[in-house]
Design goal:
The chain is α+β, with helices and mostly antiparallel strands and about 700 residues long. The protein is built from 26 helices and 26 strands. The strands form 8 sheets. Strands 4-15-12-5-11 form a 5-stranded mixed sheet, with helices on one face. It binds ligand 5U1.
């Protein structure tokens, strides 16, 4: 066999492949930094499988092809842990952490140990399933669940399918090493698993932890293999024939070097305050991690002090779990109300008995649509699980039907008329949502349309918030966006909680908004499916509103269709495709534009706005700016502008924005901690400017 120009025997090639695959598994599952594409990995894997098939005598249990293969056990055999698997004492507030630190110091003092040398190792508390991995002579020989801490279940065949778990330790072969840690599932793998369950009409899993636990306890290891389980190591049990480091932080480094996945988020801390700082940092990062954690763990760093500190019941005195506020809680579904949005969409909203979850009190949560309520089998009066993870909006996860008992529950029914204006509601073919047909006749839609119009990314009317819009609509002062431009300070000052100064400020903000861009104006109109990006494409194609209103949308749709078909033929002939008008704007958007602009009341509303003085620089003007026709990439943290604000500013001044740096990029606007994009700019010789230079370019342009 030829490999790298030298003759290699099948045995040598098998060894090479196994080493390479183990390295790629480690890069992918442990370091999160794969160095080869999946296809290359698959190619090597298939080569190894083929070689092993041709030379069965070369198959060993340490081969990556043998991860799935343990015989399906009738039940899991019991495993007695050589060193018990302990549990942890929990702390739920700062005082308990301070008390833990005090107790540790007192005990060290009693035992004449130098407490001034005390350090803690702090790490994440993974929300998974504890297991113990037994390596003998460097090879994985057993995996066992925690069980009652003394006796667990033998899940070796299943553990071997977890690619994050090395079958062989790297660079060492201790006689015995039991690695303790947690098996879990990444959230994205959990979502995929549930999608598969849904598509197969199977029951969905409640959370990644349950899916991981269920996966590990499968009698058929090939099912475990399909669950994409992960593992993080956090300690050792029995160890023989190995010289381990003398601190816990050192031990974690040692385990990582031996090829075991160890969480990157950890620190060494001197006192309770530093532990609490770590806790808060991890709490802030919690939602960004790819997996669930339920707190952090503090351990006395010196391993030889662990025994000296002793145990209380089954929990060691040297460690403490500091738990985060629960992300899930039970409460009662008091009612389901229906809200009407800007486009008339009816959204059912759960009214909940107030419940403290994820650090806030939750009283309501969107239920999205009628199908969602049916899918979750929610009845009014049910006990429900509410989840709020990080900054994610709270959601009703599921009902607990087993708690219904004999009590009568009420099913939700979507109203057949709009709950706000009484107009009919319709559900179009193939759509999940019901919509009120009232349009701007419906006060709910009117309010939402005004809020959309005034928002920062649209007309940017500072100070026009929800409460004020409610008052303006309810007092009959504003029906359409153009009415805003007729408001005066005296009328506004007559509203509740509105002083003269605020009224004057609002009138001024409304006045300022008259000067805008075509794209912002189009976005502000609130046409269905016309978001900021579509609005920008339209503003680039049409010179003004008249041209847009004069468009023959049916003819345009037909022309797009014909060109797209012709382009398929051209590509087949190897010819360049013809440019498609309004590239990227599909039939749904074209239909929405046709519908909106075809309505006389919408055209009248647009005319009224233009007559109220809303204006933007004409094409010729925009072309004259310092930014016109130039492509910018914004990266890093700018001193005053958010990245979105900087991008909007560039576009408003005629420039275009890209997300990646190439030879076509004219300027990279770099802020603090700019990373690879800045490196790429230097590499390609692209001009790099800071926020001040960008603002200066804008100031020098015609718009100012
Ligand atoms: N990260 C981490 N989780 N965890 C759980 N470390 C850790 N240590 C544990 C447990 C039960 O126990 C040791 C202190 C023995």
């Amino acid at each position: 066999m030829l490999s790298g120009g030298t003759v290699t025997s099948p045995r040598q090639r098998v060894d090479q492949l196994r080493t390479q695959i183990a390295r790629y598994d480690h890069e992918y599952y442990v370091l999160d930094a794969p160095s080869v594409p999946d296809a290359e990995y698959d190619r090597l894997f298939r080569e190894l499988q083929a070689l092993e098939q041709a030379h069965p005598e070369l198959i060993t249990s340490g081969s990556p092809t043998q991860r799935v293969g343990g015989a399906a056990a009738g039940a899991f055999a019991a495993v007695r842990h050589a060193v018990p698997m302990l549990s942890l004492n929990n702390a739920f507030d700062d005082d308990e952490v301070i008390a833990f630190d005090r107790r540790v110091r007192e005990r060290l003092h009693e035992q004449h140990l130098p407490q001034e040398e005390l350090r803690y190792s702090a790490e994440l508390k993974y929300d998974g399933l504890a297991i113990s991995l037994r390596y003998e002579a460097g090879l994985l020989v057993q995996g066992a669940t925690r069980g009652d801490g003394t006796t667990g279940e033998d899940v070796t065949a299943n553990v071997r399918t977890v690619r994050a778990i090395p079958l062989r330790l790297i660079g060492c072969a201790p006689r015995v090493l039991e690695v303790r840690g947690e098996v879990l599932m990444f959230r994205r793998d959990f979502e995929r698993l549930n999608e598969r369950q849904r598509n197969a009409g199977e029951r969905e899993f409640v959370n990644p932890r349950n899916a991981a636990a269920g996966g590990l306890r499968q009698l058929d290891p090939s099912i475990t293999a399909g669950r994409a389980l992960r593992f993080f190591a956090y300690g050792v049990g029995e160890a023989a024939g190995v010289d381990l480091p003398d601190t816990h932080s050192g031990l974690l480094d040692w385990l990582a070097a031996a090829g075991l996945p160890v969480g990157a988020q950890r620190t060494v801390a001197r006192d309770a305050q530093a532990l609490l700082d770590f806790y808060r940092r991890m709490m802030a990062q919690r939602a960004q991690l790819p997996y669930d954690i339920d707190g952090v763990v503090y351990k006395v760093d010196r391993l030889d002090w662990h025994d000296a500190l002793g145990f209380v019941a089954r929990a060691p005195r040297f460690a403490l779990a500091h738990k985060f506020p629960a992300e899930e809680a039970l409460t009662e579904l008091l009612d389901i109300e229906v809200q009407v949005g800007r486009t008339g969409k009816l959204t059912p909203v759960a009214r909940l008995r107030p419940v403290f979850v994820g650090g806030v009190t939750v009283t309501n949560a969107t239920l999205h649509n009628e199908d969602e309520i049916r899918r979750k089998d929610l009845l009014i009066g049910d006990t429900v699980v509410v989840r709020r993870a990080g900054d994610v909006i709270p959601e009703v996860v599921r009902a607990l039907p087993e708690r219904r008992g004999d009590q009568v529950r009420r099913a939700f029914a979507m109203p057949r008329t709009c709950p706000v204006c009484g107009s009919a509601v319709l559900r179009e073919e193939g759509e999940v949502d019901w919509r009120c047909v009232g349009g701007l006749y419906c006060p709910a839609q009117r309010k939402q349309a005004l809020l959309h119009f005034a928002q920062r990314r649209a007309m940017d009317i500072d100070g026009l918030g929800e409460k004020l819009v409610d008052q303006l609509v309810e007092a009959g002062l504003v029906r359409t966006p153009a009415d805003l431009y007729r408001l005066d300070a005296a009328t506004l000052a007559g509203l509740e909680r509105m002083g003269e100064k605020s009224a004057a400020n609002l009138v001024e903000a409304i006045g300022r908004s008259r000067k805008t861009t075509f794209a912002r104006f189009l976005f502000a109109l609130g046409i269905r499916h016309v978001g900021e990006e579509v609005a920008r494409v339209l503003a680039q194609r049409y010179p003004d509103m008249d041209a847009l209103m004069a468009e023959d949308w049916a003819a345009l749709a037909e022309a797009k269709n014909a060109i797209q078909k012709e382009n398929v033929r051209r590509r087949a002939r190897g010819e360049d495709p013809e440019p498609v008008p309004l590239e990227g704007i599909g039939p749904e958007i074209v239909a929405a534009l046709q519908g909106f602009l075809g309505e006389e009341h919408n055209r009248a509303a647009i005319r009224a706005l233009l007559e109220a003085g809303i204006a933007w620089p004409k094409r010729a003007q925009a072309r004259g700016t310092a930014l016109a026709g130039r492509t910018f990439v914004v990266t890093g943290t700018l001193p005053t502008l958010s990245r979105e604000e900087a991008q909007a500013l560039i576009r408003d001044h005629g420039g275009s924005v890209s997300s990646s740096v190439s030879r076509k990029t004219d300027f990279v606007v770099a802020g603090e901690a700019a990373g690879s994009k800045l490196d790429r700019a230097h590499e390609l010789g692209v001009a790099v400017i800071d926020e001040a230079a960008l603002l200066d370019m804008c100031k020098r342009s015609i718009r100012s």
